[in-house]
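Q: How would the structure tokens look for this protein?
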Amino acid sequence: MAQLEGFVKPGSIEEAIVSQIDFTRIPRHIAIIMDGNGRWAGRRMLPRLAGHRAGVQSVRETVEACARLEVEYLTLYAFSVDNWKRPRTEIDGLMRLLLEFMSRELNTLLQNNIRFRTIGRIEQLEPAVQRELMNAADATAACTGLNFYIALNYGGRTEIVDAVRRLLSDPEHAGKDLSALDEDSFARYLYTAGIPDPDLLIRTSGEMRVSNFLLWQIAYTEIYVTETLWPDFRARHLFESIVHFQGRERRYGGLSTRDTAEPAVKR
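A: Here is the predicted structure in token form.
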């Protein structure tokens, strides 16, 4: 808990929740579907972009909390391949927010030893956005703390299609029988190659769907849904999700220790 000193106020609700966390069992990889920005703005009679802007503070606090908890990987779902269907004004506003965030937060990432990366069809984004993302990735390449990923122009099905294309165009497999292909070797062609699957997936705003996010990777991921809208999501909500995660038994298709226990012998 020492790493949270100065971040969690003594006597606060956050401290009470943190006291329930087993720091030896922190999720290695946390993924978050950041949902509810539009509803947050609508309830306040504000434009949708105001909700997206308010959500930036939630990103800051979540990234810092994960870094302090020594989470190894954090992946945030920021913009899906389906979000291009939204009004152009909203898309342009989102991209401006992204540019502002990367420009303002780069020094913070470096100071906190956070390595930044993206997943998705980044090559389809505006050149200015691509340059800013590449600059942040290059600048933080030597960082050894939290691995912070943002999913942009991302879709789980798109990722799998792209992986198949990469596999089929790989000279290593040219003219060869693919019957020996297994899950591990296929995963090398995903955007997330080399990244462990998420242990915990958090969805804000109470929606009970995964929205085409990390479909391959979340096969055995624990899912936690909170009614909290993303702009209201703070460190305490992250701490609560970890407490819930640690209260579950991960079986990966096997039996629980309770199910495998020998039945008591009646005498």
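The mean pLDDT is 93.

The beta strands are 29-33, 73-80, 115-119, 147-154, 200-203, 222-225.

Upvote if useful.
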